[in-house]
Amino acid sequence: MVSVSERRRLGERLHAFTQVFDPPLGGGQGPSFAIKDLIDVAGAPTGGGGVVPLDPAPAQHAAVVQQLLDAGYVAVGKTHTVELAFGGWGTNRAVGAPWNPWDAAVHRAPGGSSSGSAVAVASGLCDVALGTDTGGSIRIPAAACGVVGLKPGRGLVSTRGVHDLAPSLDTVGPLARSVADAARVLQVISGPDGAGAIRPRFDAEAALTAEVRGWRVAVLPMEAMPTIDPDIAALYRSAIAKLADLGVIIETARTPRPFADYFIPNGWLMAAEGWRVRGGHIAVNGEVMDRWVVKRFEGGRDVTDAQLAQALARRAADQREFQDWMAPYAALLSPTAPIPAPPIDTVDETASPFSAMTRAGNYLDLPAASVPMGLTGEGLPAGLQIMGRMADETSVVALAAAFEAVSGWNGRGPDLGGLGA
User: Fold this and answer.
1) Is 36 a catalytic residue?
2) Residue among 32, 36, 114, 151 flagged as catalytic
């Protein structure tokens, strides 16, 4: 295990952690895990990515933290996030943005909002980390930082002790260096909690050992997606070919509606529900918050209850339509993000290309994973998104594990020498 001093030193260089626990929490001998700073740890401030914490001293651990500690995992620290989790680039003008470890010379976007969790895992500062995902916030940083990100569907993992962005969209899941590690974390944190989590515990081993030969999988054609970076497009085609070599039946297909038709209403719901949850916090603390985050929340300030109810009814209809379309397929494949991580000082905060392919998963309430599929010519990671049928995490993990085994990635990580490692 990485020492506390090394975790603190390199973690500070990468701006990965808001707090390194000294000593780590838990008496187990299991894997080390880090916790997105939107998730409560008893006695440790839940900063939420801001100057003013959401809770300065939570009384108890979030359910997912307690479950991992009970299973013998060891908590090593809390990780940075986009302020209030509302942003896909990984930027944070309030308390600073983590450094994507794949480029020691240029500060590149780590992806958000679970930015610090992805950076900590990619850099080997912990074995796994917890993130949250409302529009891609686990999968985007996983793709940008070259790790596995696993977003479950709703109702599988407890959100008790996890601070909301948009309650009808939020999910909690793991980031890890391998599909197996992510799947085993999902097993530990899943299962009924007497409240929002109502589905049975996830069976990691059944998913990891499933035979995918003969499964039908839909792939999006290039013209059905936003403009894809040429290197990512080549990696995507190669990933599809590798799955086909495993006996997976690949069918090019268009979704019932263009992905943009799911992207826009997901963002609208994030703002509408987010303002209801965080409007009071913003009214008091807006002057010391990231101005772009404030602008996003303010987009939902004037939404009426009637408009929100109408949007949720439209979402339910869209989900039914998509379920009917998805029924013959075990999964839908696409690049996780259409571009690799850009220099952070070039980021356009008015645009959201990183989440162009991920938001549909939250709007339609689908489980999804991002799995590394290689490096671009600049040496930057790209992710393959595997999006499953509603409540079918098993197929997502099975296909992710099958692809990982032939991807050639083999858990590689960045060269940290240039970062003083």
Assistant:
1) yes
2) 36
